[in-house]
Amino acid sequence: MADPATYRPAPGEIPDSPGVYRFRDEHGRVIYVGKAKSLRQRLSSYFQDLANLHPRTQQMVTTAASVQWTVVGTEVEALALEYSWIKEFDPRFNVKYRDDKSYPYLAVTMAEEFPRVQVLRGAKRAGTRYFGPYAHAWAIRETVDLLLRVFPVRTCSAGVFRRANQQGRPCLLGYIDKCSAPCVGRIAPDDHRALAQDFCDFMAGDTARFTRRLTARMKEAAADLDYERAARLRDDIATLETAMQKNAVVLPDGTEADVFALSGDELEAAVQVFHVRDGRIRGQRGWVVEKVEDVTDAELVEHLLQQVYGGEDVQAGAVPREVLVPVLPPEVDQVEDWLTGLRGGRVHVRVPQRGDKHELARTVLKNAEHALVLHRTRRAGDLTTRSQALREIQEALDLATAPLRIECYDVSHNQGTFQSASMVVFEDGMARKSEYRLFSVRGPEGEGARDDTAAMHEVITRRFRRYLADRAASGELEIGGGDDEDGLRSGPVDAETGRPTRFAYPPNLVVVDGGPPQVAAAAAALAELGVDDVALCGLAKRLEEVWLPGEEYPVILQRSSEGLYLLQRLRDEAHRFAITAHRKRRSKGMTVSVLDDVPGLGPARQASLLRHFGSVKRLRAASVEEIATVPGMGERTAAAVVAALQGTATPPGASAPTPAPAAVEESPGGGGAPRPAASNRDGTTVAGMLEA
Q1: Helix H or strand E segment including 689
Q2: Which of 213, 352, 396, 690 has a Cα at 20 to 30 A from 560?
Q3: Helix (H) or strand (E) holding 573
Q4: What is the pLDDT of residues 191-248, one digit of tens each?
């Protein structure tokens, strides 16, 4: 580790002028590039006491072995030079932008004698007009396929073009009028170029001119009684309108803007941009930003604009009149001047405050937030990140060791009916789905628990009672005894198969979905069983607070911490698993029938009975002989059906049975009033009797 004092410039050497500076390591590699309005003030800030610097800045200045600078005339020149050096040297301590995919563009090769329309990715080529980027290549091809009817520009490759020219016969597109066939001389080069230019103008947003032109020609053809030509022009107008509708109108016509959004934490951020041309979203791009240097959101925006517009191959049309950002860059005037020079016209950088542009910015922000969640989900497989998450949980909950096995419990029901609970297991920070378990909450009377806390108490009791029974059967009563070399507790195995028993492994940490009431119920269950070496906490969803048993105040983890992220994943997975089980039980309970318990009467025979008699009411009134005539039925089964139906018939004057509650959207703890299921007049649930 180098001492910054060893390469600190002497007083008076650094000029008080705008410029760009480079830090190099001992091997001469550029590790950081920056710009400054005053080189003297900026560079002096790096050589202060290390304790006052940000940790990442400390690492940079101690890794560097020298610093160099270049004086420029204006801050705009410094902005351009900084980007070119970042692109050239790829410094390790500068902000890194990783495109989350290679976005396709619609390209028109205007530099060729016969311009070609195609889909391109990667670096841009000189003399080619680009439109986009688009999220999907198929979206471009759909648009091009529509527009070729009106603008039959060449789309074939050079090889296909040469072969058609040699054979004197165009390809299929030439025969179906989706190509003007310049390969066989059907159109002159200048006319084909004009056709390609019209295609570019339409894609650039000048759409009204072409619809007006085609409308005028259609009316002329109709006036000349040339109805076939008028019909073709009418279809061409409809084609253009369809192509325009594929890009949603979000802002008034003529609006040109790029809308940026940023969502992230101290380590990384997700960036999204929507390209709006002529009031329509023409494309979308996204990046994941690694904050390898200490930067604010405003500085991130500045770096982002350099990334998007600073390429050597950027075209004037790529810079819009407006650039809408979440926060203004530090030197917004210099950024605007730089973008104005690239565009050749005035460019405004601003933060939308109200109206349609503000609403669109909120939409872009939602996309950025979703992209960040997706990125974090993907990075969950990273071993270093998982280790950090477990270490943070260990420190926050004051555990002796990192919780390598965590179990999370959640309860789901619908107004107290069909109560189900889930147990999900994460080992070493990763989901272990083979260890997931489901519980049907029974309650003391077999009709379910009275509330969520009672249900949680029952589930925890059943899980650890089973564990203790398995341990006792194997002669290992001590929980936590016999840790294996990986830190996971060993458990009993089946003598025949050699596999662990159903609840073989106790967790290092139990997490329940809920606050103090649920935590208290789980703690009581563990205490009643004598389990005292399993850590317990609850995660309350409203404020993402972590509650410990008997504590008056919760443990607060940083919103961006890996530990909280892991607990959230646990809770969400338990919630998903519990709701899935609840829905299955509810669906099955909503389709029950009195015929289900008749011996020998399966779904096929039930369906035959209902098809034959048409309704349960008629089936109830049928005799044994009549039922026995149904194909597949015998007298013994028919007698069992009659006995079952007579045993469930509603006596005269009695009220009909209350049907089971119908489906409503459930969440742990229920919510929402249930709606009764549709039923026949005899009280039998329609969904149940007609399931077959």
Answers
A1: helix 686-689
A2: 352
A3: helix 562-589
A4: 888 888 888 877 766 667 777 888 888 888 888 888 888 888 888 787 776 666 555 4
